[in-house]
Amino acid sequence: MAGINAFLGGAKGRLLPAALVFRYFASALLFQALAWIALFFAAPTLPGFVGGLGWPLAALHLVTLGVLVMTAIATSLQLLPVASRQTLVPSHWPYDLVWLAFTIGVAALCAGMAIALPALLGAGALAVTLALLLYLFLLARNLYGARGMRLVIVHGWAACLSLLLLVGTGLSLAGAYSAAPVLDRQTALTLHVTFGGYGFMGMLVMGFSYILVPMFALSDNPAPRWSNLSVTLAIVALALVLLTAVDVLPPRLFALAIAAGAVAFLIHVALMLQALHNGMRQGLGKSFVLVRLGWVALAVSFFVALAWDYQTPSALPPGLFVVLLIGGLLTLLLGVLSRIVPFLASMHAAIGMRRPPTPSGLTAQRPLDIHFYSHIAALVLLLLALLSGTVWLVRTSALLGLVGALAFGVFFVTAWRRMTA
C-alpha cells in the first residue's frame, strides 16, 4: 500500500475521469476478442502467411493497434501526469477525440484489411494517423512538463520519435495497396515493425516498468548506472536500424543493431527481476508470471531476428518472429493490466473516502485465473501451429484465446462495478 498511498497523495487533480480511462481499456479488450475471432478465420492461410491483405493481417493489427497501442495511450496519458505530479490538459475533449478517432480508425483499417478493400483501409489509416498525432501532442506535453523522472522521460521521448516513424511507414504501407507508396515495401516494413514493436511499445513498456514494477513489489528503484546503459543501448539500436534501412550505413550493421537491442532489453529485465527479488512484497501472483513470460518471448524474438538476418530461416516459420514479438508484448501488457485496472479503480474510488478500497478488494480472481491458463495455452498452441503448419491448432488457439479474452473482460467489468458501487 505504500506505493499506492504515494500515488494517491494529491492525485485527485491529476486523474482523468474514470469513464474516459476505462473506455480506452474496454475498447482494447473488445479488440482483443475480435483479434482472436479474426485469427480463427485466418487459420487456413496463417501458417504460410508472408504478407498481403486478408484475415491474418487484420488479426495482427487488431492486436497491435487495437490492444497494444490503445492500452499504451490510456496508460501513458493517465499514469505519467500522476507519477510526475503535473496538471492535465484543462479540457477533456482531446482525450475523447483521440479515443473516438482511434477506435473508428482501427475498426475501419482492420475491416479493410480483412475484406481486401483498399479504400476502407486508407480511410481507417487516415483516422488512426490523426488520432495518433493528437495523442503524440498530449504525450509530448506531459513529457515536457515532467520533473524528476529523467529515465522515464528519456524512454518517453524515444517512444515519441518511434511513433512518428511508425505512423509514416504505416501510411506508406497502406498507400502501397492504392499504388501510392512513399518508401519501398521492404524498407517501410522493416522500420514499421522495428519502431512499432521495439521502438514505441518497447520504450514505453521499459520506461513505465521503472515506475510500476518497484511500486507493485515495494522495492527500491534500479541502479541508475545500469538503467542508463540499457536505455542508451536501446536508442543506439533503433538509430542503427533506421540508418541501415535507408542505406546511410552498410546493411551488415543491422545485426549489430539487433545485438545492441537484445543487450539493452536483457539488462532491463535483469534490473526488473532484481527489483522483484528485493521487494518487500513477494509472490505477486499470476499477473507477474505473465510479465515474466512476456519478457522471455521478447528476448527470444531478438535471437530469431538475428537468425533471419544471417539468412538461416529455413527451419523457422515466417510468423514465428511476429508471434514472439507481438505475443510477448501482449502477454506482458495483460499481466501489468491485471494490476493497473484495480489500482486505477482504487484511486478513483478513493476520492472523497476516508477508507478507500484496496486493489485486491476490486479484483475478481477467478476470471483472471481462467484468462491466465487460456492465454498461455493459446500462445503455446499458436507457436506449435506455426511450427507444424497445422490449421486446426490455429483454430484451437483462437478459441482458447477468445475464452481468455472474455474472462479478462469479466474481470474488467467486475472492477468497474465494484469501483462505482
Can you tell me about this structure?
With 421 residues, the chain is an all-alpha fold. Helices cover 78% and strands 0% of the residues. It is built from 13 helices and no strands. The protein has helices spanning 2-8, 18-42, 55-84, 93-114, 118-145, 150-176, 185-217, 224-245, 253-278, 286-309, 320-350, 365-388, 391-420. The chain is globular. It starts with a helix and ends with a helix. Residues 1-9 have low confidence and may be disordered.
CA-CA gap between termini: 21 Å
Shape: globular
**Hey, roughly how much beta strand do the residues contain?**
under 5%
Describe the main β-sheet briefly.
Answer: none
Helix content: over 70%
Average per-residue pLDDT, rounded, comes to 87
What's the helix count?
A: 13
- The total count of strands amounts to 0
Structural class, from secondary structure content? mainly alpha
Order of helices and strands: HHHHHHHHHHHHH
The whole-angstrom Rg is 20 Å
Which stretches are low in confidence, meaning pLDDT under 50 for 5 or more residues running?
Answer: 1-9
Jot down its keywords:
421 residues, mainly alpha, globular, disordered N terminus
SSE order and pairing:
Layout (H helix, E strand, L loop, with lengths): L1 H7 L9 H25 L12 H30 L8 H22 L3 H28 L4 H27 L8 H33 L6 H22 L7 H26 L7 H24 L10 H31 L14 H24 L2 H30 L1
Helix pairs in contact: 2-3, 2-4, 2-13, 3-4, 3-5, 3-7, 3-11, 4-5, 5-6, 6-7, 6-8, 7-8, 7-9, 7-11, 8-9, 9-10, 10-11, 11-12, 11-13, 12-13
